[in-house]
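FORM 12-B: Structure-to-Sequence Request
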């Protein structure tokens, strides 16, 4: 058996953003040697891993050459060259999540097809390979347009209300989903190790900024009854079983105004909806991901206290070198912990950090989280004109 708790084991992380940075905090607790590959020399992980490599995550040779020098490979982003990962796996490198899981999930059309194949509830959709095909289709507006690849944080997703708006879309493969009147949105994180053991985190409720189409707040526990909690958990566990992933799988859900549940999408890695767990859970999502991919006993996913997480994003009207305002103010507030991601440049709605608020009372935690949102500003050195 390998000795995981020393620098004799090398872990390669594909992607050097904030998820990688928070994962590194856990590897440092266990003294695991870490290598990170990211396209940007300014990536948050660049100066805190044992070895940093700059390169294209979609380039076969770059990913393959990076991976062949480590024992384990994991990801903090889905947009990876999976052919390189398949070859590494054949050569004995432990790649988690497995390349076949990543291939299914990194393409929204394939992901949706997977849900249908396994009778998992998802919003009705149609796939289109080109804009020409899309324009020929009959639409019952409004609909939701999604790029099948490279979308994130609301990018690559648009509500379309007319044929004229359809005409403005890029000529790329996409899916069109039926428009759903959303009542609430949730997420459930499932961890699975190589031995097949699973643990599941409590259901969290996600509150979105309608303008930016981004998660603004995440609360745990969700404000729902036991029946709905059990329904969400059961579907999440079924989804996890069908994928057979190793590591974390985050399942995002939509509840419509008629009470129907749909899987929106999944992510095979730590997720924004699980950041609250760093302060509020017995085993946070990043440590849990490590436990799962190293195939050691999984930790307790239960919450110690209720929590609300608020995302800190770049303020509209500013860009350039990031400027954080009033962080010192919130540091004086009980139960408040800020996390600054280390991104050097800000732009409108870019995720630059988050703040977790813990409290014995979820309503009081939410009250403080809203106060944090009103207090902290993330701006830049350049102010943009509104013209």
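FORM 12-B RESPONSE
SEQUENCE OUT:
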């Amino acid at each position: 058996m390998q000795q995981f708790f020393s620098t004799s084991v090398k872990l390669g992380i594909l992607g050097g953003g904030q998820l990688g940075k928070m994962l590194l905090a856990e590897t440092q607790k266990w003294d695991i040697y870490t290598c990170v590959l990211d396209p940007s020399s300014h990536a948050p992980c660049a100066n805190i891993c044992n070895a940093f490599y700059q390169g294209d995550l979609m380039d076969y040779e770059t990913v393959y050459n990076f991976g062949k020098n480590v024992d384990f490979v994991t990801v903090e982003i889905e947009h990876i060259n999976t052919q390189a990962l398949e070859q590494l796996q054949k050569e004995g490198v432990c790649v988690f999540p497995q390349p076949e899981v990543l291939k299914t999930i990194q393409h929204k059309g394939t992901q949706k097809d997977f849900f249908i194949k396994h009778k998992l509830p998802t919003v009705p959709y149609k796939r289109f390979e080109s804009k020409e095909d899309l324009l020929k289709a009959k639409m019952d507006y409004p609909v939701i347009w999604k790029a099948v690849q490279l979308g994130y944080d609301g990018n690559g997703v648009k509500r379309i209300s007319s044929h004229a708006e359809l005409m403005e879309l890029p000529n790329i493969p996409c899916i069109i989903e039926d428009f759903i009147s959303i009542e609430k949105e949730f997420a459930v994180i499932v961890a699975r190790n190589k031995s097949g053991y699973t643990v599941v985190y409590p259901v969290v409720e996600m509150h979105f900024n309608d303008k930016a189409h981004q998660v603004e707040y995440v609360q745990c526990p969700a404000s729902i009854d036991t029946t709905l909690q059990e329904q969400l958990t059961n579907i999440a566990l079924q989804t996890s079983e069908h994928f057979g992933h190793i590591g974390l799988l985050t399942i995002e859900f939509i509840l419509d105004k008629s009470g129907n549940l749909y899987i929106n999408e999944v992510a095979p890695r730590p997720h924004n909806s699980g950041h609250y767990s760093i302060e509020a859970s017995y085993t946070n999502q990043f440590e849990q991901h490590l436990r799962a991919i190293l195939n050691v006993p999984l930790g307790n996913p239960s919450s110690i206290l209720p929590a609300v997480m608020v995302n800190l994003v770049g303020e509209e009207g500013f860009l350039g070198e990031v400027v954080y305002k009033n962080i010192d103010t919130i540091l004086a507030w009980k139960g408040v912990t800020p996390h600054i991601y280390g991104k050097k440049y800000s732009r409108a709605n870019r995720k630059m950090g988050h703040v977790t608020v813990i409290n014995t009372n979820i309503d009081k935690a939410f009250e403080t989280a809203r106060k944090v949102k009103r207090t902290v500003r993330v701006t830049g050195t350049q102010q943009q004109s509104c013209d």
